[in-house]
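hiii so um. not sure if this is the right channel but i have a protein structure encoded as tokens and i wanna go backwards to a sequence. like what aa goes where. can anyone help
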């Protein structure tokens, strides 16, 4: 018999094992309060986040949800951005995506263009109903691969009043086409699909999911400069974290499949709310941001190129991350209303 009185419209939050230590790769600020929070997404996955709240605040605050880079955890770059923005007056959360870090979901280390886009909207659900947040003043910030995911989320979720994509990747483009579109052909994509499909069969037969590996280690002498930059962040004390796939053994190999079968920004021209794309002038990924910016319409869109900065400089180099410009952008496009 069906129990008609049982409400199954919203999954309960899972009890997650969350670290009680300050295990970030950056120093804790004495200007903000910090605590762990959880919320549930539309697929019933419980998301773990660090909340940063400015001290001595009164009334409902503007809020920002932060995630990324792709393969990182909230104890790395996203937490630094969240803490910095909290120092500038925003209530912020830095969250681990589904299947990663301290968040729930199995199997572990799965990436999904759909579920990960949903993770940002789930953060909106949490912030829009939080008693300390003004629901009309909420934005999101995505770093690296999560910059593209943030813009994709904003296209579909008008509650997101302003979006910042810092040092962004388009993960659907780079997965399907390779870097600088060097593998943009039916033949190369079909070869990749065949290899990944065979990997699925092997994974199922073996009862385990092969990991693709994180940032290459040891570092080849002839590695491109951007790979050396990744190594310098993820594989050294500067940014290493034991829960980060980029620092350890990476995503499940077959996570690449849905990104080859999905295309971000199909409706980018319909995004009315504000977007800022920030890139380093020397970033190998700069073309992702510049090409995506061309798809956007309206006078509330901004492309900011940071002189002398590489891709990874915008992960944690506070001398180069234009944090005040980013905060001002959110304030401008998430104004207080009478």
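sure thing!! here u go:
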């Amino acid at each position: 018999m069906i129990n008609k009185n049982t409400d199954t419209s919203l999954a309960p939050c899972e009890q997650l094992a969350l670290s009680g230590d300050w295990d970030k790769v950056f120093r804790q600020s004495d200007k903000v309060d910090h605590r762990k929070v959880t919320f549930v997404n539309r697929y019933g996955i419980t998301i773990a986040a660090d909340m940063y709240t400015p001290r001595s605040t009164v009334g409902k605050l503007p809020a920002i949800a932060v995630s990324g880079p792709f393969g990182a955890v909230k104890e790395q770059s996203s937490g630094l951005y969240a803490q910095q923005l909290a120092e500038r007056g925003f209530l912020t959360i830095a969250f681990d995506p589904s299947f990663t870090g301290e968040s729930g979901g199995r199997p572990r280390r799965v990436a999904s263009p759909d579920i990960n886009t949903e993770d940002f909207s789930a953060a909106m659900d949490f912030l829009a109903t939080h008693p300390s947040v003004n629901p009309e003043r909420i934005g999101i910030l995505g770093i690296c691969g999560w910059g593209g995911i943030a813009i994709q989320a904003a296209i579909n979720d008008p509650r997101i009043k302003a979006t910042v994509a810092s040092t962004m990747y388009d993960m659907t483009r780079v997965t399907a086409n390779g870097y600088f579109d060097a593998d943009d052909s039916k033949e190369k994509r079909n070869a990749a699909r065949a290899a990944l499909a065979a990997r699925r069969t092997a994974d199922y037969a073996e009862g385990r999911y092969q990991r693709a590996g994180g940032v290459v280690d040891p570092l080849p002498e002839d590695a491109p400069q951007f790979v050396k930059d990744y190594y310098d962040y993820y594989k050294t004390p500067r940014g290493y974290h034991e829960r980060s796939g980029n620092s350890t053994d990476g995503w499940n190999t077959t996570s690449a499949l849905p990104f080859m079968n999905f295309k971000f920004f199909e409706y980018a021209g319909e995004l009315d709310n504000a977007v800022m794309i920030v890139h380093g002038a020397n970033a190998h990924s700069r073309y992702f941001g510049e090409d995506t910016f061309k798809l956007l319409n309206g006078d509330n869109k901004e492309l900011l190129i940071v002189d002398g900065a590489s891709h990874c400089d915008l992960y944690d180099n506070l001398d180069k991350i234009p944090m005040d410009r980013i905060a001002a952008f959110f304030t401008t496009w998430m104004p207080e209303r009478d």
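oh and Confidence is low (pLDDT under 50) at residues 1-5.
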